[in-house]
Amino acid sequence: MRDLSDDLLDWYDVHARAMPWRVPPADKKAGVRPDAYAVWMSEIMLQQTTVAAVTAYFQRFITRWPTVADLAAAADADVMGEWAGLGYYARARNLLKCARAVVADHGGQFPADHAALLKLPGIGPYTAAAVSSIAFDLPFTVVDGNVERVMARLHDEHTPLPAAKPILTSQAEALTPNTRPGDYAQAVMDLGATICTPKSPACGICPWRDPCKARANGTAPDLPRKTPKKPKPIRHGTVYLAQRNDGAWLLETRPDRGLLGGMLGWPGSDWVDVATPRPTAPPFDAAWQRLNSEVRHTFTHFHLILDVMVATVGDITPPHGTFVPKAQFRPSDLPTVMRKAFDLTVL
């Protein structure tokens, strides 16, 4: 007797999205095996980020560092620079730590073992399940936002998220097959991304149209329900952009811990909840001028507003940071919030 997973896999065999890290179902049936390195990298990049945003980054990383050993041997600054703009920078730091652990402890091969994957830096339950399932075809259930939405609608589950997570995970586990679990995991995510979308789901062409309880009850557009989020606080700070007479820019590497850890950035103040009337603590004495425009950026837990101070200086030795020659300075190496500050100076 056929079950829901069979119907979904049949749909996936025809409609699977093409992605540079994915082995198409036809190729997989022909014996092509997924590259665990590519699967792992894509999953780390895709955390809280879209496929459209990740694709170009993934292709650059794989081209520059085609194996986990290549990545493990890379300079931290090079990896952080390539990651700039992708956000959630702790992921980039963990990417390097994990690559080095795979080389040091597993001979440069990702272990085909769920428990061993969980012991690697930066790999939590979701990523371990994804790599186990997609790379090694082990029957582990992968639950992201797409899967939660599909399960909530399939079962007409009205418990709001995040309280509904264990319910939806249990429902997803019940449907995960022992045969082709990797393809099935990707199929559910594709279904949520292309058919069972947040708004205006295309129920008429869904392979799970008939068994879907929310479609039958007319509640699909309302699911999954979510507990209202609290308003994000606003923090304020100041950044100081100093350019030497020869065009070099003063940059510093931020501490490894915290937001933007290990990334290049401009010297600046702490980010505080209350705006101060005037910027304080410049990195050194100079004829600083405040730009009329300010940087506005949103992180996961707060909004940030930055005043931008600029100065042109002579041949000085700053107490912190390094002047990067104009020919070597790449704005693309900056995280997005720092790039916004730079862009204001060249408008």
Please give a quick description of this structure.
The protein is an alpha+beta fold and 347 residues long.
Description:
With 347 residues, this protein is α+β, with helices and mostly antiparallel strands. Helix 3 packs across helix 4, helix 3 runs antiparallel to helix 9 and helix 9 packs across helix 12. Strands 1, 4, 5 and 6 form a four-stranded mixed sheet that branches. It has a three-stranded antiparallel sheet with strand order 3-2-7.
Kindly state the mean pLDDT as a whole number? 92
Helix content: 40-55%
Q: Residue ranges: pLDDT <50 for 5 or more in a row?
A: none
The helix-strand sequence is: HHHHHHHHHHHHHEEEEEEEH
Distance between the termini: 65 Å
Tell me the number of helical segments per DSSP (H or I, 4 or more residues long).
Answer: 14
Q: Rg, please?
A: 24 Å
Largest sheet: 4 strands, mixed
Secondary-structure topology with pairs:
Layout: H1 4-15, H2 25-29, H3 36-46, H4 51-64, H5 68-72, H6 76-83, H7 90-106, H8 114-118, H9 125-136, H10 145-154, H11 165-175, H12 181-194, H13 213-217, E1 234-244, E2 249-253, E3 264-265, E4 289-290, E5 295-298, E6 303-313, E7 322-324, H14 336-345
Parallel strand pairs: 1-6
Antiparallel strand pairs: 2-3, 2-7, 4-6, 5-6
Short descriptors:
40% helix; three-stranded antiparallel sheet; 347 residues; alpha+beta; four-stranded mixed sheet
